[in-house]
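I'll show a typical protein example:
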Amino acid sequence: MTTVKQCIDQKTNTIFSVRSSDYVEVALLLMRDNRVRSVLVIDDGVLVGIVSQGDCAIKVLLPNNSAKQTVVSKIMTAKPLTVSLSNSLDECMAIMVHKHIRHLPVVENNKVLGVISIGDIVKSIIELQGNQIKFLETYIRGHGV
């Protein structure tokens, strides 16, 4: 069972964040420039929310509000669900499926360490399945079937 720590250790783990007082445009530019679909909202070292591309599209762009005039605090998900390093990726997937979310901040001792995305979990599953296939191929070849 793969843990959040094992997954985080394989990532570059740059934390992309904005302040709750920043304009949505800042969050969108950060997402675009770094090819991520969400950014954390951190004020004075404390995780206060998360904002996704979907939040920006549904809560700002569709109602024809201005990303240059709307502050992140108005559209962010406040007090987001978080996981710790000891959680398994299976637990993360269960949370994501049940809550219909795609990103979970990783927090340990009130410090943000990174983000686990649904893409990270899918990548881990594919890698695990590839390893299992290789093992089975070796097993079959080694036993002369």
Remarks:
- The CA atoms of residues 104 and 116 lie 5 Å apart.
- The chain has a mean pLDDT of 91.
- The chain is about 45% helix and 20% strand.
